[in-house]
UniProtKB/TrEMBL annotation:
UniProt xrefs under InterPro entries: Acyl_CoA_acyltransferase, Bact_Acetyltransf, GNAT_dom
SUPFAM superfamilies: Acyl-CoA N-acyltransferases (Nat)
PANTHER family: AMINOALKYLPHOSPHONATE N-ACETYLTRANSFERASE-RELATED-RELATED (PTHR43877)
Domain N-acetyltransferase: 5-146
UniProt-recorded Gene Ontology molecular function terms: acyltransferase activity, transferring groups other than amino-acyl groups
Matches recorded under Gene3D superfamilies: 3.40.630.30
Keyword Acyltransferase: yes
Top-rank lineage group of the source organism: Bacteria
Protein name in UniProt: N-acetylglutamate synthase-like GNAT family acetyltransferase
């Protein structure tokens, strides 16, 4: 990329490109599935999906955020997804998306941003630390299909 990406809120028209980007990170699904999920997030006041647009108009990344409140920790925004196109990495896209997510958190009055980074992606950990994030713990994640 020759210039900083334009970061904007996602629209339903972005579903195909978000699906393409998500597949790069190992989360493949059909465009229809992503469109359904994206519409639910766009309709939710506690979620934001922000996209980075490259010089050619294609999406080069996205970040998804969720405003959360818990009894033990209070209110915060969690970055639940961050994907930068493989061809656009190390070009400032991730930094711009994180900054936009942080701005959204400030705009809605949330005092903290939180994120999780898979231990299988060690190259991402120094990136977050350079942006001022502090590792607070390592944990196991469990799921149960219902």
């Amino acid at each position: 990329m020759s210039s900083s990406p334009i970061v904007r809120h996602a629209t339903l028209a972005d579903a195909a490109q978000i699906a393409r980007l998500s597949t790069q990170l190992g989360y493949p699904a059909s465009v229809e599935v992503f469109a359904t999920r994206l519409q639910k997030l766009l309709d939710s006041p506690t979620h934001a999906v922000l996209v980075a647009v490259g010089d050619d108009g294609r999406l080069v990344g996205f970040v998804a955020t969720e405003q959360r409140i818990t009894l033990e920790l209070g209110e915060r925004v969690e970055i639940v997804a961050l994907v930068v196109d493989a061809e656009a990495r190390r070009g400032g896209v991730g930094k711009a998306l994180i900054a936009a997510a942080e701005q959204w958190a400030q705009d809605i009055g949330t005092p903290e941003v939180f994120l999780r980074s898979n231990i299988l992606r060690p190259e991402a950990h120094p990136f977050y630390e350079r942006l001022g994030y502090t590792r607070t713990k390592t944990q196991h994640a469990y799921h149960k299909p219902l």
